[in-house]
Write a structure and sequence with these properties.
293 residues, alpha/beta, Nucleotidyltransferase, domain 5, 2 domains, 5-stranded mixed β-sheet, 13 strands, ATPase_NBD
Length: 293
């Protein structure tokens, strides 16, 4: 069976795996992401390929605005030295195999579409609750890129029309990881820093103040899922990110969504709200799915 070198490029590390078309992983590891220049980045990828030169191709997930059909990177997210370059072509020249590249959030959606919780739908959405809000829209069983490759970039949706010029009212500020902490700090009237694990431990143990703050976080998440559904008419919306592993999160999002939906004259049917099946390996699996398809 053919094997592929699959890379998940992050701001601090490049996670890599040798995988087959059934997403079996034969070897895996990570190396630091070069932050200095493009040449260092290319050298790092080539070094990994040289280690596994029997692979049939390279599939890559990375941040930025990317044309997945050409592997052209208009931006590179935190990798500021990546802009306006056909990265797939460049890497293919150095490694001698076919290279495909996709945006990281859209790769996470591809993992769900190809192998996970969205494999049975035509239209839907993925919402990743992380440092920011990762997102993707799915149309006709394909991840929708958009004509300028920015479809589904939910993070900067403005949530307060009274303050449209303030980045603090963007969706990521309320429902990113820092937003979760701020909701809990406000509820507890403290400036104490808590990890996500500590927050959910307190909530699961019945801390009323923490539950109140968490419910507000989930209410704001549910509002935006409602809005996305009004625009896109989703069969399913899959919630991802590390905190999606907490059953209480999905429970509270669903509760708040149902209350919103039942109070409004919604013009669309409600979507099924589910959790993503893939978390830490979602970008790897999605990059592989994109490469194969």
């Amino acid at each position: 069976m053919k094997k592929y070198l699959v890379l998940d490029v992050g701001g601090s590390a490049i996670k890599y795996a040798v995988m087959d078309a059934e997403k079996n992983i034969y070897e895996r590891g990570k190396v630091p992401t070069p932050l200095d220049c493009l040449d260092s980045f290319v050298n790092s990828v080539q070094s990994l390929y040289n280690t596994y030169s029997d692979v049939s191709g390279i599939a890559m997930s990375m941040p930025g605005r990317i044309d997945p059909n050409k592997g052209y990177c208009y931006t590179g997210g935190a990798l500021t030295y990546i802009h306006d370059i056909n990265m797939a072509e460049l890497l293919s020249e150095h490694c001698g195999v076919r290279v495909t590249i996709g945006n990281d959030a859209k790769c996470a959606a591809n993992a769900e579409l190809g192998f996970g919780s969205l494999r049975d739908i035509q239209d839907g959405a993925v919402v990743i609750l992380g440092t920011a809000i990762g997102g993707a829209l799915i149309k006709d069983h394909k991840v929708l890129s958009g004509c300028r490759f920015g479809a589904g970039e939910f993070s900067n949706i403005i949530t307060d029309y009274h303050k449209p010029f303030n980045g603090d009212t963007s969706w990521y500020a309320s429902n990113g990881i820092n937003g979760l902490l701020l909701h809990i700090q406000e509820a507890l009237e403290t400036e104490e820093n808590y990890t996500g694990e500590e927050i959910f431990e307190m909530a699961n143990n019945g801390n009323e103040a923490v539950l109140k703050g968490l419910n507000q976080f989930c209410l704001e998440t549910a509002v935006q899922i409602y809005n996305i559904n009004q625009i896109f008419d989703c069969e399913k919306v899959a919630i991802g990110g590390g905190i999606s592993a907490q059953p209480l999160l999905l429970e509270l999002i669903k509760k708040n969504f149902d209350e919103i939906y039942n109070s409004c004259y919604a013009s669309t049917l409600p979507p099924e709200i589910v959790v993503c099946e893939y978390r830490n390996d979602a970008n790897l699996i999605g990059a592989l799915y994109q490469h194969l398809n």
